[in-house]
Amino acid sequence: MISAAKYDGTPIKILTSQQYDFHYRIALVMAENLKAAGFKIDMQVVDWATLIQRRNDPALWDIYITHSAVLPEPTLTPPQLGEGAPGWWSSPAKKAALDAFDAEADPAKRGALWGKVQEVVYTEVPYIRVGSFNSLTARSTKLDGYVAMPWPFFWNTGLTK
Q1: What is the pTM of this model?
Q2: Mean pLDDT within 19-28
Q3: How high is the mean pLDDT of the chain?
Q4: How do beta strands 12-17 and 41-46 pair?
Q5: Long-range contact list for 69-78, CB < 8 A, 24+ apart?
Q6: 37, 89, 134, 140: least surrounded by Cβ within 10 Å?
Q7: What tens digit of pLDDT does each residue of 87-97 get?
Q8: Neighbours of 122 (CB within 10 A)
């Protein structure tokens, strides 16, 4: 199958970091699966700051691993639908589907329009969701001012007196 795709043996550059252990583990599994399929892999394990710098230059990577929170507004999850970060994609079909979705306020109609957004993602394959994870958060009733968020922060919090 790989020969039918006319793969020329150029190594696939996977850019990852151990800053987030699950990013690194995803990259390891991905690399092994790609090797088993016949691809050559150039695994680039760097610190997070270097990854952020290198992802600005698409010539330096073919794949990089990232993640996002699940937010209640579909266009905010995943952030790959935006165009503000390197590696995110832009296309006329994506713009049309997102514009139609964003212009609609009726939740019932938005469901069908979201299906069109997903269709563009599955057709153009700009990113691949490789998994889901959850975390459990608990807090003491003695903690005052804490606001639950996808990633916890503790500024403006303190102990109840």
Answers
A1: 0.72
A2: 93
A3: 86
A4: parallel
A5: 69/150, 69/151, 70/150, 71/150, 74/101, 74/110, 74/114, 74/117, 75/101, 75/102, 75/117, 78/127, 78/129
A6: 134
A7: 678 899 999 99
A8: 8
Pairing of strands 143-144, 63-64: unpaired
Residues in the chain: 161
Which helix (H) or strand (E) element contains residue 42?
strand 41-46
User: What one-letter code names the amino acid at 137?
Assistant: T
Q: Which residues pair with 12 in a beta bridge?
A: 41
Q: Packing angle between helix 92-103 and helix 107-124, nearest 10 degrees?
A: 170
Q: What is the tens place of the pLDDT at every residue in 34-79?
A: 999 999 999 999 999 999 999 888 899 999 888 876 666 776 666 6
23 and 58 Cβ atoms separated by less than 8 Å: no
d(CA 83, CA 81): 7
